[in-house]
Amino acid sequence: MQWTSVLAIYFLFLVFSAFVLLPFGVRTHDEVGVEKIPGQADSAPVNFRPGRLMLRAVVLAAVLTAAYVANYLNGWITAQDLIFWGPTVR
To answer: How many whole angstroms separate alpha carbon 78 and alpha carbon 71?
Structure first.
């Protein structure tokens, strides 16, 4: 596998991880007990920390990419393993 392919797969996992991790750890003004600004959405977070979110996403994407590349090199799960119904060709 070329390094550019690994980089592209890592970037895809990074974006996916960031969106998956986005709702975790969010606390609203009502949960914390802080007064809201007039016109503010009820679901707005008290303090959004994108650096912390990206750090978590970078780590998760690195783990997922390493697992993907390891599976690619060792062939643990193949396309034939993902066919759950229909004719099997072996």
So the answer is: 9
pLDDT in tens for each of the 90 residues of the chain? Answer: 899 999 999 999 999 999 999 999 889 999 999 999 899 998 899 989 999 999 999 999 999 999 999 999 999 999 888 888 877 666
Contacts of 10 by beta carbon, 8 Å cutoff, 6+ apart: 61, 62, 65
- The reply to whether 20 falls in a domain is yes
Distance from C-alpha of 3 to C-alpha of 1, rounded to nearest angstrom:
7
Q: How many domains, the chain?
A: 1
Residue 51 covered by a domain: yes
